[in-house]
Amino acid sequence: MARKVVNRKELRAENEAAEQAGTTKKKAKKKAAKRASRAKSVADVRMKLFWGVFNQSLKRVALYDFSQKKQAEKKATELSKSGKSPHFVQKVKEVIEE
User: Residue 43: what pLDDT?
Assistant: First the structure.
């Protein structure tokens, strides 16, 4: 299995000669189709901070404005004393719809 030894310079010369003669066929490159943008437009979402009173199973019992932290803590202590499960206060962010 003998392989034919080909010199690059010879191949290049043959190719250039063929190009000058106009006998080579060039393949037309296909233009890539543009994809439709999949990016979602980000809607401005406004959030507001509240104080939430929660029971032991993370169920929200009451909701207070952020400026009313003392009332929220008072409610949590009242519910903890009267009931079996302890209650606690935690920050809650909710979406404001205009």
Answer: 78
State the SS3 of the chain: CCCCCCCHHHHHHHHHHHHHHCCCCCCCCCCCCCCCCCCCCCCCCEEEEEEEEECCCCCEEEEEECCCHHHHHHHHHHHHHHCCCCCEEEEEEEEECC
Q: Cite the DSSP H helix spans in 1-98.
A: 8-21, 69-82
**Contact call for residues 55 and 61 (beta carbons, < 8 A):** yes
Report helix, strand or coil for 6.
coil
pTM listed for this prediction? 0.54
User: Contact, 79 vs 61, CB < 8 A?
Assistant: yes
Contact by Cβ (8 Å): 64, 94: no
